[in-house]
């Protein structure tokens, strides 16, 4: 398929590379020119704006940090809407508030562009391996048309419902992962403070009802003190900010998510924003009187 990719950061770059590896014809643009280098070397087309990407492709994908960025690259000057032909499909794979995704879809629709919100889970490792979980909101027929693109980037693709529904699912995902990271970090810090072997504690817990992928994968990284970013703490903090904003809007109580959000706030306050979210262990160690390095 002829596809354009906008936003080539930690996640976007490997996702776009996987589209190329799957045989799709990819056009790229990024606000940071240097980010385009690996894609251009791999054979992607070089575009000067998001509008040019849309002119060259039937489908565009954006993967940018937050809602204002999505609005800029889709509806701003030289954005997707300025270059798209009627019937163009735009897929936003960023994580933004569901209500904002719905608003962007409506405004793009008024300009003849079909919008899908398709946020992902799996972090940088999943983006590199092409094993992301993709949660889609928007028109069912459009979702079916771009299924080959989703399959090049992910292994679990689920259409949740209409516009914004993909972002609702991603918000739910971030509640589970945020609270899960906090729970595992608390567990391993508690075990260490109690004089127990964290490796043995994790091993025992993996054999019972406490098993989770977060305990298996992130717990191991905590034990190894591997805090190299695959999903940066500031990103998780931003996502939980979206969750809590939606909770306030809906009048929904999310006490566990609120507590996790405060811990991520603490990580940013301690200068850990660019470390992986599993560095929450260091924050809890500091809070418990340890060094936390």
Automatic annotation (TrEMBL):
This is 2-hydroxy-3-oxopropionate reductase. Keywords: NAD, Oxidoreductase. Residues 164-284 form the 3-hydroxyisobutyrate dehydrogenase-like NAD-binding domain. Belongs to the HIBADH-related family. SUPFAM superfamilies: 6-phosphogluconate dehydrogenase C-terminal domain-like (SSF48179), NAD(P)-binding Rossmann-fold domains (SSF51735). It comes from the Bacteria. It comes from Thauera aminoaromatica. The active site is at residue 170. It is an enzyme of class 1 (oxidoreductase). GO terms for biological process: organic acid catabolic process.
């Amino acid at each position: 398929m002829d596809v354009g990719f906008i936003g080539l950061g930690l996640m976007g770059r490997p996702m776009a590379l996987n589209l190329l590896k799957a045989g799709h014809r990819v056009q790229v643009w990024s606000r940071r020119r240097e980010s385009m280098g690996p894609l251009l070397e791999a054979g992607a087309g070089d575009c000067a704006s998001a509008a040019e990407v849309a002119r060259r492709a039937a489908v565009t994908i954006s993967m940018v940090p937050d809602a204002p960025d999505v609005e800029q690259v889709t509806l701003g000057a030289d954005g997707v809407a300025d270059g798209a032909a009627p019937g163009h499909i735009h897929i936003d794979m960023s994580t933004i508030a569901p209500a904002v995704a719905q608003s962007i879809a409506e405004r793009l629709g008024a300009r003849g562009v079909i919008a899908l919100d398709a946020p992902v889970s799996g972090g940088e490792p999943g983006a590199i391996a092409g094993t992301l979980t993709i949660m889609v909101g928007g028109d069912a027929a459009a979702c079916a048309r771009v299924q080959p693109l989703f399959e090049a980037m992910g292994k679990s693709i689920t259409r949740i419902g209409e516009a914004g529904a993909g972002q609702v699912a991603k918000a739910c995902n971030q509640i589970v992962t945020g609270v899960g990271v906090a729970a595992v970090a608390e567990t391993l810090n508690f075990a260490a403070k109690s004089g127990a072997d964290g490796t043995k504690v994790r091993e025992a817990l993996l054999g019972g009802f406490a098993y989770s992928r977060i305990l298996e994968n992130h717990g191991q990284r905590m034990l190894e003190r591997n805090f190299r970013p695959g999903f940066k703490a500031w990103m998780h903090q931003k996502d939980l900010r979206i969750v809590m904003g939606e909770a306030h809007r809906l009048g929904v109580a999310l006490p566990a998510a609120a507590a996790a959000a405060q811990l991520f706030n603490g990580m940013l306050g301690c200068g850990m924003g660019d470390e992986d979210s599993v560095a929450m262990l260091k924050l809890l160690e500091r809070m418990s009187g340890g060094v936390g390095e």
